[in-house]
């Protein structure tokens, strides 16, 4: 039987599309350059001189012309201007030629575009399996989804490393370390919560993995009571949770700042305010969706007055959680241009804040404060999109590897295939055919399926999905509290 079949065809077609379409069209570039984003231009030296009534230094001008005649680059002319200078910033739409030179632009473009391609492969695979369900084919879409998660984690790691470089990032560095330890301790408390309260499925996953792994090792002639202890497993997961919490810290703070600014900008537009508040509140609903007494028991056990049965079945509730994650992440992606424009408007706010201060500032520092906002646009975009990608694609792996369905019906319980070892004759010296290699791969795959069952994947990716959603809500809520405290003083 075919191990790959249509899966391989879908993958090869998508790779061809990536090669042909990638150089000419990019969703990531379109989101930055075709959604109406406007950036602010810093004023030139002549405009600053005219606004501040600063005369031009003729002596420095002669030195600059002399250096140009000698072939050396002219030095930047520096002069002081009052901080409360009355000047308006010119605006211009963001274009592809502007963003292509920005820091982390290539990383952002690759992450988002590859995520879109992986999503297309996943959707095509799910549609195919919906019409032609088969257990023998390898689901190659999971490899695409796994690569997206790896790339998103790498991007978050790269952004976090930037705070550990240079002497000016002491505060950010300390914040990352402290929050990493906080989330490490918090995850240790979460991991000891009873499954009747927080149903992440880790206990069931651990029991299933230990039993299946012990049976597999015993078939190989190796006596074992279990490959790993529960304490070591939870300690490793807590370390991973702490590291991921450190990665989510500054993206969450950044998103909270942009959300806070957007609420002030759109005070008179109720519909946009409703969307913004809904996008902020949905991650909280995702967090409590795994708290059994207030979610599953309320919707699948309790019978309300006037009804003869609960509102949802257990399988329908599982599907509802996954769909809610997808809707939340899509809504936040749709609102991303608003958040990015709120960040670009920071250049204007910096000029307004300087007007409230007394004293003077150099023209170079004034221009740097405005130019730096656009320079870090792709960094901020990565901070916005990478956590969304982590949550969304974790949910995809949770749905597929956990054996859930989209229609809310009971999922098919995979049959436990017996682990069989192919017998190889000692006298056989001829080269193995392709068919024999495929059969051996099929046997090895069946052996892995007996160890990594649906219960294992449900526990592993169920907890990972819930923890990513929790980190997203916790970090943004911390940022909102920070903005509320310091802006009200």
UniProtKB/TrEMBL annotation:
UniProtKB keywords: Glycoprotein, Membrane, Signal, Transmembrane, Transmembrane helix
Upper taxonomic lineage: Eukaryota, Metazoa, Ecdysozoa, Arthropoda, Hexapoda
Protein name, as recorded: Transmembrane protein 161B
Highest taxon in the source lineage: Eukaryota
Principal place of residence: membrane
Signal sequence segment: 1-20
Membrane topology: Multi-pass membrane protein
Region annotated Disordered, chain positions: 52-78
Similarity field: Belongs to the TMEM161 family.
Record Pfam families: Tmemb_161AB
Transmembrane segments: 110-131, 143-164, 176-193, 231-250, 271-291, 320-340, 373-396, 464-485
InterPro entries in UniProt: Transmembrane_161A/B
Subcellular location: Membrane
Keyword Transmembrane helix: yes
